[in-house]
C-alpha cells in the first residue's frame, strides 16, 4: 500500500480513537463538545461520527438542553453494538458469559462438569450458547469473537500445548468448538494471562503498570504485565511461577519436577494435604469453608501450612519481578480470611480479586473490545 494512504488511514484511526475514548467515558456528548475536547475540526468530527452512527457504535439521542443558541444534538456510545462470548474452563466448572463492548455481562451461566472430554464440553457450550442467543435475541454476526480461558500452556498461535489439570494435550479449541459457535472466530487464552489483563483493566494507569496475576485454583498459573503489556516470553509460555521449586526434593509435580509451588499452595494441594492428615471430605470451596468456619483443627492446620507456602511463592514473585501489584485470583480468593498474607510484599501491593470468573473473562473481553474499537496495540494473539 502507498505510504501516504497508510499515513492517512493511521491519522483517521488516531482521530477516531480520540472520539471513541471520549464517547466511552461520557454519558452523552454533542459534536461541538467532541470537537472542543479533541481539538479536531467540526468537519472531521462530523465525518467520523457519521461513520460511527452507520456502524451502530453510537446512537443519536436527538436534541439536548441548550445554554442559549441552537440546541445541540447529543450522541451516546452504544455498548450493545457488538458482543463477546467469554468462557472460562476450569477443572470442575465452566463459566459462560456474553458481554457487551463495555464488558457488562448480559448473559452468564456456571456449568458444573465432571468430564473434561472436549466433545461433551462442546455439547454443554452449545446448549449455553443457544440459550444465550435466544434469551438475548441477538444476531450471531454481532458476536465478534469467542474467547476461551484454559489453565494451560498456550502457544503464540492459540494452540493448547498442555492442560495437566484438565488432561488436555495438543488441542486446538478453535477446531474443537468450530461447529458450536457457527463460524465466529475462537481464541484461546492462558487463564492466568487473561486474568492479568483483567486485573490491568481495573488499575488507574494501565500503560504504566507492572503486575503479576496469580491464578491459584486447581493449580497455580501466573500472568505477567510489564508496562501495560502482557509478557509472554519467546514461545508464549512465560509466567510459570507455579512450577518454581519451593521445597527441594519435595512433592512430585505433574510437570516432572519435585517441590513446585503449586503442589504446596493450590486448591488441589490443600485437598492432598487434608488427605495426608486423614481428613476425608468432599471437594469444593463451600465444603472447605464450612470446615474452616466450624474450626475443624485439621482443616485449619492444612490452611496454615498452605498460607505459609503461599507466602514463600509470593515472595519469590515479588523478588523476581518487583511489580506494582501482585493480584491473587481464582478459587484461592475464597480463603482470603484464612490466608495470612501481608498487604505488601517487598514493596509490591498484594490484592485479592473479588469475583472468581470476573477478572479472567473481563481480561479477554478487554483485549477483544479494545482491538475491535481502537485497532490498538493489544492486537496480539494471546
Ligand atoms: Zn511443577
TrEMBL record:
State any single GO MF term: kinase activity
Q: Which Pfam families match?
A: HTH_24, ROK
Swiss-Prot/TrEMBL keywords: Carbohydrate metabolism, Kinase, Transferase, Xylose metabolism
GO BP term, example = D-xylose metabolic process
Query: Would you identify the family this protein belongs to, as annotated?
Result: Belongs to the ROK (NagC/XylR) family.
What functional role does this protein have? Transcriptional repressor of xylose-utilizing enzymes.
Q: What is this protein called?
A: N-acetylglucosamine repressor
| Source organism per UniProt | Jeotgalicoccus coquinae
Q: Tell me the lineage of the source organism.
A: Bacteria, Bacillati, Bacillota, Bacilli, Bacillales
Amino acid at each position: 500500500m502507498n505510504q501516504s494512504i497508510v499515513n492517512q488511514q493511521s491519522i483517521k484511526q488516531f482521530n477516531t480513537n480520540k472520539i471513541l475514548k471520549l464517547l466511552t467515558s461520557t454519558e452523552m456528548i454533542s459534536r461541538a463538545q467532541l470537537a472542543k475536547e479533541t481539538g479536531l475540526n467540526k468537519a472531521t468530527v462530523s465525518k467520523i461520527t457519521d461513520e460511527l452512527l452507520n456502524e451502530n457504535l453510537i446512537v443519536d439521542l436527538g436534541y439536548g438542553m441548550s445554554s442559549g443558541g441552537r440546541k445541540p444534538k447529543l450522541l451516546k456510545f452504544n455498548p450493545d453494538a457488538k458482543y463477546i462470548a467469554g468462557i472460562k474452563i476450569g477443572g470442575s466448572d465452566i463459566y459462560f458469559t456474553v458481554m457487551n463492548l463495555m464488558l457488562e455481562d448480559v448473559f452468564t451461566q456456571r456449568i458444573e462438569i465432571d468430564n473434561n472430554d472436549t466433545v461433551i464440553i462442546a455439547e454443554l457450550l452449545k446448549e449455553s450458547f443457544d440459550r444465550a442467543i435466544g434469551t438475548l435475541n441477538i444476531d450471531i454476526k454481532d458476536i465478534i469473537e469467542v474467547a476461551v480461558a484454559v489453565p494451560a500452556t498456550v502457544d503464540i498461535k492459540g494452540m493448547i500445548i498442555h492442560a495437566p489439570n484438565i488432561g488436555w494435550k495438543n488441542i486446538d479449541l478453535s477446531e474443537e468448538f468450530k461447529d458450536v459457535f457457527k463460524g465466529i472466530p475462537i481464541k484461546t487464552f492462558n487463564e492466568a494471562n487473561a486474568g492479568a489483563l483483567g486485573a490491568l483493566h481495573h488499575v488507574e494507569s494501565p500503560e504504566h503498570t507492572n503486575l503479576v496475576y496469580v491464578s491459584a485454583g486447581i493449580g497455580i498459573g501466573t500472568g505477567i504485565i510489564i508496562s501495560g503489556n502482557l509478557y509472554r516470553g519467546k514461545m508464549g509460555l512465560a509466567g510459570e511461577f507455579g512450577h518454581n521449586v519451593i521445597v527441594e526434593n519435595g512433592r512430585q509435580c505433574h510437570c516432572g519436577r519435585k517441590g513446585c509451588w503449586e503442589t504446596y499452595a493450590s486448591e488441589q494441594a490443600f485437598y492432598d494435604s487434608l488427605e495426608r492428615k486423614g481428613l476425608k471430605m468432599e471437594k469444593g470451596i463451600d465444603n472447605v469453608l464450612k470446615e474452616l468456619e466450624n474450626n475443624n483443627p485439621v482443616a485449619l492446620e492444612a490452611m496454615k501450612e498452605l498460607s505459609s507456602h503461599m507466602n514463600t511463592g509470593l515472595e519469590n514473585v515479588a523478588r523476581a519481578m518487583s511489580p506494582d501489584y501482585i493480584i491473587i485470583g481464582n478459587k484461592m480468593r475464597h480463603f482470603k480470611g484464612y490466608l495470612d498474607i501481608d498487604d505488601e510484599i517487598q514493596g509490591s501491593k498484594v490484592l485479592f480479586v473479588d469475583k472468581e470468573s470476573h477478572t479472567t473473562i473481563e481480561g479477554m473481553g478487554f483485549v477483544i473490545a479494545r482491538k475491535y474499537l481502537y485497532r490498538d496495540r493489544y492486537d496480539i494473539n494471546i
